[in-house]
Amino acid sequence: MLADALGYPLKHEDSVGTIIIGSVLLLASAAVWFLSGILLAVLIGIFMLPLALVPLAIVQGYQVRVLKRTIDGDNAPPSFTQWGELLADGIKAWLIKFIYAIPLFAILAILFFSGFLSSISQSELAQASFGIFSIIGLLFFVGYSLLSLYLIPLGLCSFADDGTISAAFRFSQLSEVGLNGNFAVGWLLAVFVVVIGQIFGVPLSLLIIGVTILFYTRVVEYRLFASGYRQAIAGSQSNSEPRDMESMFSETGTE
User: Fold this and answer.
1) CB neighbours of 29 closer than 8 A, spacing ≥ 6?
2) Are 4 and 27 spatial neighbours (Cβ–Cβ below 8 Å)?
3) Helices (H), the chain
4) Angle, alpha carbons 12-152-148 (nearest 5°)
5) pTM of the entire predicted model
6) Domain ranges across the chain
7) d(CA 34, CA 19)
8) What is the DSSP string of 9-37?
9) Is the Cβ–Cβ distance between 134 and 111 less than 8 Å?
10) Mean pLDDT across the chain, nearest whole number?
11) What does the angle CA 26 – CA 29 – CA 30 come to, to the nearest 5 degrees?
12) Does the structure show a pLDDT above 60 at 89?
């Protein structure tokens, strides 16, 4: 799975052009972010910030397309075509990520509000209770943060497979796939690739080679997610077939 994913971005006649476009989009976004930060003092930078999100959304949409093509069994990476569709899919993917992150925002809001009440309270019991509550809240925050790192790729794969945002939250189906060893292996390999990519890509991100490493590893990452998802789906379907045959034989026997 890993060897296939590492070579996946190059399995197309237009691979070099695709990698260059993806790298330029990431570089353009970083440049706009940097320029808008400089111009914040004159308020122009505020209006430039949304422009930095457009290239990132297109790259995110491309990653969704990688998921879809891999799940469909296509071993060739997609090209940057139908940019409007890429932008729309990227925004949808961000929405899915945001929805999964809502519990984290809720926990932080509760902790902040509880801390505010404790700060204005003179009761030692209230302050002690807040200390215990904070520890519990932080445990929930860390626990769900780790869980969301697993759930979000799973939800994005389901979204790419079905084409609807609601598919990313069909937890009965997601739990079956997520508990499958094939997806877990794909996820672990993807995390490994991302960590290595960040180690080498981030320090060189001001150069085109660093941005290229970051884009390349993102494509490999999503290929691994989708490969694990596809194998998990295939495994669950093959496991269900014997049960269906057994039920048919049992029904025939009763008749």
Assistant:
1) 52, 53, 54, 55, 56
2) no
3) 2-7, 15-38, 44-71, 83-120, 124-162, 171-178, 181-201, 208-254
4) 145
5) 0.85
6) 2-254
7) 23
8) GGSSTTHHHHHHHHHHHHHHHHHHHHHHH
9) yes
10) 86
11) 85
12) yes
